[in-house]
Amino acid sequence: MKLFQRLLIAPAALGLISPLAANANEVNLNEIENYLNPESIEFVNSFDDNDLNKTPLLAGGEGLVDTDSYDGGFSETTTASFSADFGIGAVDGKDVTTTVTDGDEVLQAAYGFQIDLNTSFTGEDSLDISLDAGNTGAALGELDLTGGQNTAGADLLAVDGVSYTFPLGSATAFVGDNTDGSMLFTTACTYGGSNTLDDCANITAGITGGGLSIGAAYDFDNGFTTAVGAQFVETGIATKGNADSWAANLAYTTDSYGASITYAMVEVGTGNDTFTALNGYYSFDNGLNISAGYEIGDLDGHVAAADETEAYFIGINGEVGPGELGAAVGTYGKMTESGSTMPEQLMYEAYYSYAVNDGMTIKPLIYTVEAADATDKDETGIMVKTSFSF
Predict the structure, then answer these.
(1) Are residues 45 and 167 in the same domain?
(2) Residues 268 and 304 in one domain
(3) How far is the C-alpha of 106 from the C-alpha of 96, rounded, in Å?
(4) CATH code at 350?
(5) In contact, 204 and 268? CB cutoff 8 Å
(6) Which of 172, 200, 297, 359 has its CA 20 to 30 A from that of 87?
(7) pTM of the predicted model, to two decimals?
(8) Total domains present in the chain
(9) What is the pLDDT of residues 244-283, one digit of tens each?
(10) Are 47 and 63 in contact (CB under 8 A)?
(11) Residue 40, helix vs strand vs coil
């Protein structure tokens, strides 16, 4: 419970959540009703002394009260959204602790919590900050818990990304820290299963996990979009051999079908690895979607006895009953050439995602990963993720 207390205190300290005033005569019930709206929260503040009709969400602990003072309030263009994920599941055939061999169907639970802050200064730009908290459940990595699996340690609160998006002529550009260089890319895929296969085989070409990131995108307003992006190691921006990445993306998407191509160059040592990903989807009139992807990489000879990688994926998803049913098969990550062979390790999965209400979704997932070699055994996982948005 101490963690959840901290999670409540942290937003309060940021001015996102303020306690109600102790004096009931000062409480504005209309503002309370607006504050409890789960769709979005808009923090309103006016610095115009003549505008006395707006009641701010104060950051100093005063709460939602009628007052003529707006000191400490947020601008009227600042919004916040919140999400929380809870996961529980068991995996057999995966070494998830130092004391349990090969998983042995160990049952684990984990959570993730995220606060997204968005502010516009001109109406056309956006400053976005993401705060993540959570713990780690080694066996639950396929659930992609928001903020949880990406936190470096247990029960930590961290800044997951800061970015500023703005118009650049007729295009849209961004600069960010701890933000993906492919943030503005379009990958032609409608599948959303496990943390591994929902990449749709666009694993490395869609550059992710960078330090300083920049990019730009242009929408031709006829289905075509194009984008470029780059990400750099902060300790030596654009320094040769410092694992910097550059990428470009071209896509054509409609309601019924789409295709995209993504190309990336990644510095590794004194060489450059290159990756090309092809993705596409087709949506039938009955609501069934088919998505496929293929990525090939050239390792520039810096890996001993290997100069190529491959990854592929095919998945289907569509509405079944009150939710969405999906299934897919694909490579477990990338296949890397070893000598004259390309060892293949496949992953199979199925999921069902359904919304209990507007702010709560439950998603059971079952998957199997083939053994990497004859000495291992297949990895099998059964788990459930419950997501809340408010």
Answers:
(1) no
(2) yes
(3) 8
(4) 2.40.160.10
(5) no
(6) 200
(7) 0.77
(8) 2
(9) 899 999 999 999 999 999 999 998 877 889 999 999 999 9
(10) no
(11) coil
